[in-house]
Automatic annotation (TrEMBL):
It comes from Ruegeria conchae. Belongs to the metallo-dependent hydrolases superfamily. HutI family. Binds 1 zinc or iron ion per subunit. One of its GO terms (biological process) is L-histidine catabolic process to glutamate and formamide. This is Imidazolonepropionase.
Length: 387
């Protein structure tokens, strides 16, 4: 995709791939003579897009929260569920009890569901261990996904996700004694591509998050943040001040936060799966983000509590239907902009020099990807030039 057409679409286009990379893209009628005798694959009238990118997931976790979902629908309150061992704590317990192999094995079916829809890159966060050993185990399992499946994996350290029970009421001590030392240990082991946090009344306040960001900065790691999901604590503004790759959720983001993100070039990662599951009503400020040219990505937020979602195509539909994004914005949000949210410049577009990560679809117009619900028109996935 390139050029001035909507979506940067090229009709009757051709892509030249050498090894794992794209070397040329343009009209079939203008393929350079140098490529004339190259092996050709004819995809007919099908649409080819960049491989999709899920820029925000928690696919590595232990346990299962389906029963909790059922309890809630049978009328149990959050407190009753928490007392029965539910909520994030049940995932923390399940994750702490799982071996690295078990974490990997339970993540792979979720990853496979994403790949079946043309995904070629996923971000995976830690944040259900909340102790050094388990956070490292989660990140090692995340790294191994890329050995087990043809997919790119970017990891985010999310030690500042919640305070574990053994530190209940001592959030500051948890950040200083566990979260930051664990970040340093994970970085030393090469397990961290970015550092994330959860800035919210039910999680950490901006001063606590800032200490984690300072530690990230000292290690030369980029930051991102779960911000303004349930209230406005100024998290996105803080993230922008640290040059964050992205601020995610941002339903309650205000004009100040939008302006800060625009100035810093921070991507807005919108997560309609969590909005849907939590039956939220406050929509992210999409029109303001658009006006201020803040790029918008869309991601599944796949996690066992607030977004048990493993379909990026459904996420695109939700982005359009729930958040009023356009199908063109939705497709950019799971390709080009998603790559930017992960700090990747070698994928997310069809352009010379980039990795040949492609999705071939049995459709003729890209709006169909966002329009249909529960339909997967993937014909073929190409990862690094390999089918
Ligand atoms: Zn999340």
């Amino acid at each position: 995709m390139g050029g001035d057409q909507p979506y940067g679409m090229i009709e009757d286009g051709a892509i030249a791939v050498e090894g794992s990379h794209i070397v040329w893209v343009g009209l079939q009628s203008e393929v350079p003579a140098a490529y004339a005798d190259w092996q050709r694959v004819d995809f007919g009238d099908r649409l080819i897009t960049p491989g999709l990118i899920d820029a925000h997931t928690h696919v590595v976790f232990g346990g299962n929260r389906a029963v909790e979902f059922e309890m809630r629908l049978n009328g149990a309150t959050y407190e009753e569920i928490a007392r029965a061992g539910g909520g994030i704590l049940s995932t923390v317990n399940g994750t702490r009890a799982a071996t690295e192999d078990e974490l990997l094995a339970s993540a792979l079916p979720r990853v496979d569901a994403l790949l079946a829809e043309g995904v070629s890159c996923i971000e995976v966060k830690s944040g259900y261990g909340l102790d050094t050993e388990t956070e490292l185990r989660m990140l090692r399992a995340a790294r191994r996904i890329a050995q087990e499946r043809p997919v790119r994996v970017k990891t985010s350290f999310l030690g500042a996700h919640a305070t574990p029970p053994e530190y209940a009421g001592r959030d500051d001590a948890y950040i200083d004694e566990v979260c930051i030392p664990t970040l340093r240990a994970a970085h030393a082991e090469g397990l961290v591509d970015a550092v994330d946090g959860f800035c919210e009344g039910i999680a950490f306040d901006p001063t606590q998050i800032e200490r984690v960001f300072v530690a990230a900065q000292e290690l030369g790691l980029p930051v991102k943040l779960h911000a303004e999901q349930l209230s406005n604590l100024g998290g996105a503004k803080l993230a922008a001040a640290y040059g964050a790759l992205s601020a995610d959720h941002i339903e309650y983001l205000d004009a100040d936060g939008v302006a800060a993100m625009a100035t810093a070039g921070t991507v807005a990662v919108l997560l309609p799966g969590a909005f849907y599951t939590l039956r939220e009503t406050q929509i992210p400020p999409v029109e303001m983000l658009r006006q201020q040219n803040v790029p918008m990505a869309l991601a599944t937020d796949c996690n066992p509590g607030s977004s048990p979602l493993t379909s990026l195509l459904l996420t695109m539909n939700m982005g359009c239907t729930l958040f009023r994004m356009t199908p063109e914005e939705a497709l950019a949000g799971v390709t080009r902009v998603a790559a930017r949210a992960l700090g990747l410049d070698n994928t997310g577009m069809i352009a010379p020099g980039l990795s040949a990560d492609l999705a071939v679809w049995d459709i003729s117009h890209p709006a169909e990807l966002s329009y249909r619900i529960g339909f997967n028109p993937l014909h073929k996935r190409i990862f690094g030039g390999e089918e």
